[in-house]
Amino acid sequence: MKIKRIDYSVVVPVFNEEKNVKKLFGEIKQVLETSKKRYEIIFVDDGSSDGTLEVLKSLKPIKILVLRKNSGQSSALDAGIKTARGEIIITMDGDGQNDPADIPFLLAGLKERVDVVCGWRYQRKDSWRKKKISLVARFLRKFFVDDGVHDAGCTLRVYRRECFDDLDLYGEMHRMIPALLRWRGFGVEEIKVNHRPRTRGVTKYDWKRTIKGFLDMMEVWFWRKYDSRPLHLFGFLGLVALFLSSMILLVLAVARLFFGYQLSDKIWPLVGMGGFLVGLQFLIFGLLADLIVKNRREKIFYRVTKVIENEEKK
C-alpha cells in the first residue's frame, strides 16, 4: 500500500516532558495552521515514566509513537522520521526551548540546492557549563568532521524527505546529521533562531551524553574515510608494524650471528616479536572488518510498541 504524502511532518522526541508537551503542541499547531499546508504532528514518547503519554493522548490532531524503553534522542528521531509522510520533515526538541515561530523562517531557507536548514541558537539560554561544553565540541567537530554549522546540537531543523533515504540514527548521531548529509552531497544552510529558557521539567543533558557524542563523532570520522575499505586502514598499519618489526629482528639476527651480540638480557627481541604479532593482528582485523562491512545489515536500536493517531473531527 502506497503511503499518502503530505506537505509537512513535525517530529518531536520527548522523554518525561509532561509539563511542556501541551503548550508546545499548541504552538506547533498554530504555526502549521497558518501555513495552509497539509501537515502532521508526530510526538515520539521515548519511554517516559511520568504522565507525558497521557497528556499527549488528549491532543488532536497528533500521531504518537510509543517506544518500549528509553532509547535516546537519536533513536526517537529515527522512529519519527521513518514514520513521517511529509515531503518536508521538521524536527525539534520537546522541552519547549525551541521556538515553533521560527519554523516559517527555516522553511523559507529551503531554496534551490539547499536541502537542510539548521537552527543556530546564537543566544543560548542554557547554563554556562553547557555553553562551555558546546564550544569544546564545536572545536572537535571542526577538526574531525567539519560540518560547516555553528550549532550541531540544535534539533530545530527542516529537511527535504530524501535526506533520510538509507540513513539510520542511533546513539548521539542526531548531532552528526549535518555532516553526514553534507558528505552525501546535500546542501546545508544555517540561520539564527530564538532559544528560550527551560521553564518546566528537568534537563536530560549530562556528562554521559558528552562522552557518547564524542565517540559517535569519532565513528562518523572513521566511516567517512573507510566506510567501504577498512582493510586500507588496518592493512596499512599492519604492514608498517610488520616491516618495522622485521627490520628489528633482522638487525638482531645479524648482530647475534656475525658479531656475537648478546640478546638474553635485551628487550629488543620482545619488541620485535611483539611488533610482528601486532602487525599480523592488524591485518587479520582489517580482513574481518572488510568482510563485516560487505555483509552488514543495519540494526534497529529501538522498538515501537504502539502507534496512536488522534484525528480532529471534521
Chart the SSEs and their pairings.
Blueprint: E1 6-14, H1 21-35, E2 39-45, H2 52-57, E3 62-67, H3 73-83, E4 86-91, H4 103-108, E5 116-120, H5 128-144, E6 157-160, H6 177-183, E7 188-192, H7 207-226, H8 230-259, H9 268-294, E8 304-310
Helix pairs in contact: 5-7, 8-9
> Which structural class do the helices and strands define?
alpha/beta
- What's the count of strands? 8
CATH superfamily of the largest domain: Spore Coat Polysaccharide Biosynthesis Protein SpsA, Chain A
Count of helical segments?
Answer: 9
Can you write the helix and strand succession as a string? EHEHEHEHEHEHEHHHE
Strand order across the largest sheet: 7-5-6-4-1-2-3-8
Assign the CATH topology of the largest domain: Spore Coat Polysaccharide Biosynthesis Protein SpsA, Chain A
Whole-number average pLDDT?
A: 84
Strand content: 15-25%
Rg: 25 Å
What does this structure look like?
- Helix content is 44%, strand content 16%.
- By secondary structure, it is of the alpha/beta class.
- It has two domains: 221 residues, Spore Coat Polysaccharide Biosynthesis Protein SpsA, Chain A (Alpha-Beta Complex), CATH 3.90.550.10; 65 residues.
- Strand 1, helix 1 and strand 2 form a beta-alpha-beta unit.
- Helix 8 runs antiparallel to helix 9.
- The longest helix is centred in the C-terminal third of the chain and has 30 residues.
- It is elongated, with a radius of gyration of 25 Å.
- The relative contact order is 0.14.
